From TrEMBL:
<feature type="transmembrane region" description="Helical">
    <location>
        <begin position="303"/>
        <end position="325"/>
    </location>
</feature>
<keyword id="KW-1003">Cell membrane</keyword>
<keyword id="KW-0812">Transmembrane</keyword>
<comment type="function">
    <text>The central subunit of the protein translocation channel SecYEG. Consists of two halves formed by TMs 1-5 and 6-10. These two domains form a lateral gate at the front which open onto the bilayer between TMs 2 and 7, and are clamped together by SecE at the back. The channel is closed by both a pore ring composed of hydrophobic SecY resides and a short helix (helix 2A) on the extracellular side of the membrane which forms a plug. The plug probably moves laterally to allow the channel to open. The ring and the pore may move independently.</text>
</comment>
<feature type="transmembrane region" description="Helical">
    <location>
        <begin position="173"/>
        <end position="194"/>
    </location>
</feature>
<dbReference type="InterPro" id="IPR030659">
    <property type="entry name" value="SecY_CS"/>
</dbReference>
<feature type="transmembrane region" description="Helical">
    <location>
        <begin position="146"/>
        <end position="166"/>
    </location>
</feature>
<comment type="subunit">
    <text>Component of the Sec protein translocase complex. Heterotrimer consisting of SecY, SecE and SecG subunits. The heterotrimers can form oligomers, although 1 heterotrimer is thought to be able to translocate proteins. Interacts with the ribosome. Interacts with SecDF, and other proteins may be involved. Interacts with SecA.</text>
</comment>
<keyword id="KW-0472">Membrane</keyword>
<dbReference type="GO" id="GO:0065002">
    <property type="term" value="P:intracellular protein transmembrane transport"/>
</dbReference>
<feature type="transmembrane region" description="Helical">
    <location>
        <begin position="206"/>
        <end position="226"/>
    </location>
</feature>
<dbReference type="InterPro" id="IPR023201">
    <property type="entry name" value="SecY_dom_sf"/>
</dbReference>
<dbReference type="InterPro" id="IPR002208">
    <property type="entry name" value="SecY/SEC61-alpha"/>
</dbReference>
<keyword id="KW-0811">Translocation</keyword>
<dbReference type="GO" id="GO:0006605">
    <property type="term" value="P:protein targeting"/>
</dbReference>
<feature type="transmembrane region" description="Helical">
    <location>
        <begin position="71"/>
        <end position="96"/>
    </location>
</feature>
<dbReference type="GO" id="GO:0005886">
    <property type="term" value="C:plasma membrane"/>
</dbReference>
Length: 439
């Protein structure tokens, strides 16, 4: 405990780090305050707080702003959707590939295109949000056209403001700003969910509640292992004589993450899982099979839903890993810089070796990711309430763990640069190597 307080004191001793932490806290407070400002023309007492399904997951990420019909009702999600679209286009469209290779100028153009696409997506999602997520009796403004136009404008401005807050956190604060906004929205729901679960259990089921907390602890530790786990491929660089000095000759590593895809497979799979129930609902009256599909895939605890969900996550994990990690590019960069994997020929053989290793580590990673994704369903089957069960896995837990680890890494870098002892006894976060080959 003494060492912990000493580390906290060291953190606030560094002026730059202290200012960045205070800036981050200030920006996050502004974001949370905006989540409670309701759109003009809406009676908040008539809003439905119980949002289920994929909308419930979205509401959790936004910290309740979605169900509150606030000016940040869509939050940063349209920007994330636009970023995903641009990232996929970068993999497939030559124009975007060319922009990516142009350096800073290309990145500025991509960012500008992403912002314009964000506005378009916000208008589309905002229209669906106003039409389907807000009860008709909650709208008190008589002129529906004026309400829709003003609300779309405010929602778009709110999303752009959230995007600006995220960029300010990245520049002036600590951690990745966009990820921090999502994480603070998720964490804001945790105390209330925990208190609700504790009150529900009461003293009669206090032991069961303690077992839930213990299970949550082990699930979080497992997710940390999944996030940090890497397969290091040794790379040897040939010695080069430049003038009177000898360069190279050292051994470094290529870190291939067990979960290179992050939370994207869960997001993609979750986005598609509502389609079977929707399509089945249209034909439910004329077909018994369609009615069965609609009923089964509307139940998040059914084995059919969870099996399909897990399989889709595994498939999307391989797909997203394939488009985000390019073994051919890694092999070419190594060959250009005079690096080689011991026992493997440079060029095509190196690319095939990296691809084989990547496939082998991705399979257990995708399997583990699928298990983490369906853990909330098992938690609900065990009797955990819906709100608290979402923290036992899925997108929420993966985002929280990933963002917290990334933020701790940045804080530790500041400490080590000022020659303070890091946050771990080893002086660095576990799972990270000092010798990493950058491809």
């Amino acid at each position: 405990m003494k060492k912990f307080f000493s580390t906290i004191r060291n953190i606030f001793t560094i002026e730059d780090l202290r200012v960045r932490i205070l800036n981050t806290v200030g920006f996050l407070i502004i974001f949370r305050l905006g989540s409670f400002v309701v759109l003009p023309g809406i009676d908040p007492s008539k809003l439905d707080d119980n949002v289920a399904g994929i909308l419930g997951i979205l509401d959790t990420m936004l910290g309740g702003a979605f169900s509150n019909a606030s000016i940040f009702g869509l939050g940063i999600m349209p920007y994330i959707s636009a970023s995903i679209v641009i990232q996929l286009l970068t993999m497939a469209v030559p124009y975007f590939q060319k922009l990516q290779k142009e350096g800073d100028s290309g990145r500025k153009k991509i960012n500008q295109i992403t912002r314009v696409l964000t506005i378009a997506i916000t208008f589309a999602q905002g229209s669906a949000y106003l039409a389907g997520a807000i009860p008709a009796d909650a709208i008190v403004l008589e002129n529906k056209f004026l309400f829709t136009l003003s609300s779309l404008t405010i929602l778009t401005a709110g999303t752009i403001f959230c995007m600006w807050l995220g960029e300010r956190i990245t520049d002036k604060g600590i951690g990745n700003g966009i990820s921090m906004l999502i994480m603070i929205g998720i964490i804001s729901r945790f105390p209330g969910s925990l208190m609700q679960e504790a009150v529900t259990r009461g003293m009669s089921e206090a032991l069961f509640f303690l077992l839930e907390i213990l299970a949550l602890f082990f699930v979080v530790m497992a997710v940390v292992l999944l996030t940090q786990a890497v397969r290091r491929i040794p790379v040897q660089y040939a010695k080069q004589v430049v003038g009177n000095k000898v360069y190279g000759g050292q051994r470094q590593y290529i870190p291939l993450k067990v979960n290179s895809a992050g939370v994207m497979p869960i997001i993609f799979a979750q986005s598609l899982m509502f389609l079977p129930s929707m399509v089945g609902g249209y034909f439910a009256e004329s077909s018994d099979v369609a009615q069965y599909v609609a009923t089964t895939f509307s139940n998040f605890q059914s084995w059919e839903y969870n099996l399909t969900f897990a399989i889709m996550i595994m498939l999307f994990t391989f797909f997203y890993t394939a488009i985000s990690v390019n073994p051919n590019q890694i092999a070419d960069d190594m060959k250009r810089n005079g690096g080689f994997i011991p026992g493997v020929k440079p060029g095509k053989a190196t690319s095939e070796f990296i691809d084989t290793v990547l496939t082998r580590v991705t399979f257990p990673g995708s399997l583990f990711l699928a298990v983490v994704a369906i853990m909330p369903a098992f938690a609900q089957m065990a009797g955990v309430n819906t709100n608290f069960a979402q923290f036992f896995g899925g997108t929420s837990l993966l985002i929280m763990v990933g963002v917290i680890l990334d933020t701790l890494q940045q804080i530790e870098s500041y400490l080590l640069m000022r020659h303070y002892e890091g946050m771990m006894k080893s002086g660095k976060l576990k799972g990270r190597s000092q010798n990493i080959a950058v491809a």
